[in-house]
Design a protein that fits this description.
There is one protein chain. 39% of the residues lie in helices and 20% in strands. By secondary structure, it is an alpha/beta fold. The chain has one domain: Alanine racemase (TIM Barrel), CATH 3.20.20.10. The chain has an eight-stranded parallel sheet with strand order 7-6-5-4-3-2-1-8. Strand 5, helix 6 and strand 6 form a beta-alpha-beta unit. The chain starts with a helix and ends in a 5-residue tail after the last helix. The mean pLDDT is 97. The chain binds pyridoxal-5'-phosphate. Pyridoxal-5'-phosphate (PLP) binds next to strand 8 and helix 9.
Length: 218
């Protein structure tokens, strides 16, 4: 089933859109099945969980961090992940820059936008995003490559469209700023029930778990 679902989604998404497979709570066996069907990009929410899976799966796929990252986990995160999609503070960026410098790399990140301005969710509020990006663009060992958003949950998926549209507007505006260390390439938005809307609104990374693996158990 996993294989069929991956193949079906891959056949539906337009060229230039990457399918990120969201694998929190899924076993290595499940993930391997998805990889055999063509998944090349994995998203994990927890460093510890990812560490175990990474030790088995390794570099045959790209790894993106899509959860909330604590500063004390940054060093480990940089060992596993090719990109952190959820940078939403100068403090976190500072820590990433520090470890990237030690490794001698320029590390790619996305800025997470809290497009619904929900208190319980992470991400920078839309009106604060420009200042944050300007601050982070001063770090020499970080490269900002785009934006990520979750958006609020609605029973009716269509209701999320304005939040995706707002995030795309920010994306286009930040592109025009031509800041150093900022290259707006990736717009990560859309999940199992909203990915089609997200692509219509300009997403080029969609993050899908449930649609591939079925409902989460825990
Ligand atoms: C779990 C998760 C997804 C995938 O959600 P599904 O509804 O299972 O497709 C996407 N993005 C983030 C940040 C997630 O935590």
């Amino acid at each position: 089933m996993i294989k069929e679902r991956v193949k079906e989604i891959l056949s539906k998404i337009p060229e230039g859109v990457q399918l990120l497979c969201a694998t929190k709570g899924r076993s290595v066996e499940e993930i391997m099945e998805a990889i055999e069907a063509g998944i090349t990009l994995i998203g994990e929410n927890y460093v510890q969980e990812a560490e175990k899976k990474y030790s088995i799966i390794g570099k045959r796929v790209k790894w993106h961090f899509i959860g909330h990252l604590q500063t004390n986990k940054v060093k480990k995160a940089l060992k596993i992940f090719d990109m952190i999609e959820t940078v939403d503070s100068v403090k976190l960026a500072y820590e990433i820059d520090k470890h990237a410098k030690k490794k001698g790399v320029v590390y790619p990140v996305l800025i997470e936008i809290n497009s619904g301005k929900e208190k319980q969710k992470s991400g920078v509020f839309p009106e604060d995003a420009e200042n944050l990006i300007k601050e982070i663009s001063k770090f020499e060992n970080i490269k900002i490559e785009g934006l990520m958003t979750m958006g609020p949950f609605f029973e009716e998926p269509e209701k999320i469209r304005p939040y995706f549209r707002l995030t795309k507007e920010l994306f286009d505006n930040f592109k025009k700023l031509s800041l150093p260390n900022v290259e707006m390439k990736y717009l990560s938005m859309g999940m199992s029930d909203t990915w089609e809307i997200a692509i219509e609104e300009g997403a080029n990374i969609i993050r899908i778990g449930t649609l591939i693996f079925g409902p989460r158990k825990g």
